[in-house]
Amino acid sequence: MANKKRILVAFDGSEQSNDAFQEALRLGTLEPVEFIFLTVIVEIMPNNEELYLSLNVHPEMDDVYKALAEKRLEEMTAGLGSDVSYQNEAVHGDAKRSIVSYAKDNDVDLIVIGATGRGALERSLIGSTTAYVVNHAPCNVLVVK
């Protein structure tokens, strides 16, 4: 049997990322695939070191954010049958760069991503994350509206 196609689905909890999830599942009925459902825990880092130090950032908050992200992924994939091959991944970083980097490092064949994300600014554009992924990904990108 041929290797399964690796499809990375970028998920941020937005309606369009839910649509991307559904479209990816549809694609999975056409050929053997392995899904990677990826969510990125966005790190907000001030440019000024003094400001950063004054924020009194607590490292344990990273664990809380990661647990919440993992729970969101688990809820999304809870209804998948045992015949669906997938893994859930939650990583820290800048969303657009993390998606591209993950795809490069893990031999992804296709990225499925929503046209826009969760933020108001992102919804007003194609989505800066989506545009970046389309232009920098090492593989094809399917943008779902």
Automatic annotation (TrEMBL):
Residue span(s) of domain UspA: 5-145
CDD domains: USP-like (cd00293)
Domain of life of the organism encoding this protein: Bacteria
InterPro entries registered for this protein in UniProt: Rossmann-like_a/b/a_fold, Universal_stress_UspA, UspA
Family, similarity comment: Belongs to the universal stress protein A family.
Protein name: UspA domain-containing protein
Lineage: Bacteria, Bacillati, Bacillota, Bacilli, Bacillales
